[in-house]
TrEMBL record:
The keyword Nucleus applies. The gene is Dclre1c. GO terms for molecular function: 5'-3' DNA exonuclease activity; damaged DNA binding; endonuclease activity. Keywords: DNA damage, DNA recombination, DNA repair, Endonuclease, Exonuclease, Hydrolase, Nuclease, Nucleus. It comes from the Eukaryota. It is found in: Nucleus. One of its GO terms (cellular component) is nucleus. Belongs to the DNA repair metallo-beta-lactamase (DRMBL) family. Pfam families: DRMBL (PF07522). This is Protein artemis. Its main location: nucleus. The keyword Nucleus applies. InterPro entries: DRMBL, RibonucZ/Hydroxyglut_hydro. Residues 139-193 form the DNA repair metallo-beta-lactamase domain. It comes from Rynchops niger (Black skimmer).
């Protein structure tokens, strides 16, 4: 038996290119999420999720997400997280130009929002190993750099933890103009909110 099904890809907000699948056919409509992160009101702005002035009737939703678990009962908004990180980075980097921050990002993609906002708010570009992964995201290119002489680093090394223990950034920087660096590490990870349920 054959049936025509319309498949619509909706932005998942998880990392660049991430999507949710909306399947529509004679037997109903199904939404398959995968990992997603949508702020309040974002779904209301997705035209393809609507029919006329209302949201399409969805019979089934498949939540295939890391955080569909009761232990993640509260995950702060992206804005709350950004403000906390921004406050910490601002207070640390303002101490001297030798006070630097290492953003211990475990994935290659998905932190663009953080890089752009830190750069815009503090006027400091974020050091990354290579720019080629961002070539198709021109809006971020102004906010990242391969110049290691900056106060915010998101450079990566296969064994980041080992590098950091020696007061050395993953890119190898230990000092500037002979002055040792003072490094703090920030690990932007949603997993923290499940590990520390209180």
């Amino acid at each position: 038996q054959k049936e025509d099904i319309e498949v619509t890809l909706l932005p998942a907000g998880h990392c660049p290119g991430s999507v949710m699948f909306l399947f529509e056919g004679a037997n109903g409509t199904v939404l398959y999420t995968g990992d997603f992160r949508l702020a309040k009101g974002e779904a209301a702005r997705m035209e393809l999720l609507h029919s006329g002035t209302r949201v399409k009737d969805i019979q089934s939703v498949y939540l295939d997400t890391t955080f569909c678990d009761p232990k993640f009962y509260h995950i702060p908004s992206r804005e709350e997280c950004l403000n906390g990180i921004l406050e910490l980075v601002r207070s640390w980097t303002s101490l001297s130009r030798y006070h630097v921050v290492w953003l211990n990002c475990k994935a290659a993609y998905g932190y663009e929002y953080l890089f752009i906002n830190l750069s815009e708010e503090l006027g400091i570009k974020v050091h990354v190993n290579k720019l080629d992964m961002f070539r198709n995201m021109p809006e971020i290119l102004y906010h990242v750099t391969t110049d290691r002489h900056t106060q915010i680093h998101a450079c990566r090394h296969p064994r980041d933890e080992d590098c950091f223990r020696g007061n050395r950034l993953p890119c190898g920087m230990t000092c500037q103009n002979g002055t040792p660096l003072h490094i703090i590490s920030i690990k932007p990870s949603t997993m923290w909110f499940g590990e520390r349920i209180k």
